[in-house]
Amino acid sequence: DSFDILGDGVKELLVGRDDGMIEIYNFESADDPVLRHDYALSESIASIQGGCVGKDGYDEILAATYSGWLTGLTTEPVHREGGSGEELKLSQEMQSKISSLRNELEHLQMKVLQEREKYQQSSQSSTAVSSVPAFSVNDKFTLNKDDASYSLILEVQTSIDNVLVQSDVPIDLLDVDKNSAVVSFSSCDSE
Q: What's in the GO CC field (predicted)?
């Protein structure tokens, strides 16, 4: 998307990448765009848009991720400084917002508990049928020309517990910054 997120009168280029990076490019000169800000998410970005969503006067970037999460980045200051010796007082609007969010969180926690109980009861029933849910998998296997390696990217709309890679030829697994996986190797029986 293109949007004036920096408020300088010139639209910036907002880029959402498959690797989860959000980047803001500024066109300071007529030559090449300059990276001004970036932010990393844990999953690929399906859509990105700039605009004013949450509070008047503060522009935001909204990004939709592969699994359906909406993430917002705002220009509203997060921290406010008080004068020396002053106590930080929350505005009535902020207090009601916090109270509303707490109530919503409690409601969601109660709903999760009720659904868990329903599931437990239905799974104990003699007529219960178990099935494996079908998930769409977003997968990519691409060649990185810089270091002659392949990147395997797997995304599912639920957590991934294990990924098994089996190969008939020896392979080296390289660690990357965004990888939180624990790698274990085991030799395969040639037969």
A: axoneme; BBSome; ciliary basal body; membrane; neuron projection
